[in-house]
Structures are given as structure tokens and as C-alpha cells.
Design goal:
The chain has 149 residues and is mainly beta. It has one helix at 125-131; strands at 3-5, 12-14, 23-25, 30-32, 35-37, 41-43, 46-48, 51-53, 56-59, 64-65, 69-71, 73-76, 79-81, 84-86, 89-92, 97-99, 102-104, 106-109, 114-121, 136-139, 144-147. The chain has one domain (20-147).
Length: 149
């Protein structure tokens, strides 16, 4: 990030930051295309495309995503029309509307959320070996039932 001189004053040593930046799509902005980032991503506008995030993906209360979302974690307060796949925690909060399948290791859903699709819960690889297969839930705003045990 900054250059500094070594003790000999002739040699320049460069240090670089390994931190990744955050990406924000603001309210009133519409993007058509896919987004890929190693940092956090926040969508408060509209995205007509897919998101591949290396960290956390946040869809704000007015955010709309028409496409698939993939990331380590996701927090959805807006609208998603597509598949959501996260490697850790998926949180659905507020007046979120999800139309599509979701897949996560951990899931939090507030009662005010509308979710229509299937939910696949995957544990760690050792838990999968012990249980044989992950539970699959089919959910709508009215009911939830286990499928395919």
C-alpha cells in the first residue's frame, strides 16, 4: 500500500494490503450483468444477473436481485428471484421475498419473510457421512414439510 525505504536508502520495499474492498450498488441503480467479488457485496438497487461473492452478500430492504446468489454468507432483506447458495449462514429478515431454492449450512428466517421454494440444509462433510444425506424442505408462506427422507 505504501512504499518505504530500507536502511540502505537505495532499495524500495513495497508492501501490499491483502484486504478486499466492499462493493455497493446504491438505491436507484440498475445493473444488467453478473457481479463477482472477493469482498462483501451490498445491493440496495436492482441487479438483473448473478452474484458470486467470496465473503458476505447483503440485499438491502429495497434491493432486488433477479438471478442466482452464491457466497460464504448472505443476509437478505429485499427481493430475490433465483437460487441462493451459501457456505455458512443465510439470514432472511424483515419483509424479504425469496422466490427460488435456497441452500445453506445454517438458516435464520424471521416470521415476516415470504419464501417460496425448496430449502436444502447441508452440514459439514463429517455430518453428511454420518447422516447419509441432507434434509430437504419444501416451503411456502403457508406451510413447511419434509420431503424425501
Amino acid at each position: 500500500m505504501f512504499n518505504s525505504k530500507s536502511k540502505s536508502d537505495n532499495e524500495i520495499v513495497s508492501s501490499s494490503s491483502t484486504a478486499t474492498g466492499n462493493s455497493l450498488i446504491g438505491a436507484g441503480t440498475t445493473i444488467k450483468g453478473d457481479i463477482s467479488s472477493n469482498g462483501d457485496i451490498r445491493i440496495d438497487g436492482t441487479l438483473k444477473g448473478n452474484i458470486i461473492g467470496g465473503a458476505k452478500v447483503l440485499i438491502g430492504p429495497d434491493g432486488v436481485v433477479e438471478g442466482d446468489i452464491e457466497g460464504n454468507q448472505a443476509d437478505v432483506l429485499g427481493t430475490v428471484k433465483g437460487k441462493v447458495v451459501v457456505k455458512d449462514l443465510l439470514t432472511l429478515r424483515g419483509k424479504a421475498v425469496i422466490t427460488g431454492n435456497i441452500q445453506a449450512v445454517k438458516l435464520q428466517i424471521e416470521p415476516t419473510v415470504t419464501f417460496n421454494g425448496q430449502c436444502h440444509m447441508n452440514g459439514s462433510s463429517s455430518a453428511k457421512e454420518e447422516k447419509g444425506k441432507a434434509a430437504i424442505f419444501e416451503m411456502s408462506t403457508d406451510s413447511a414439510r419434509a420431503v424425501g427422507e
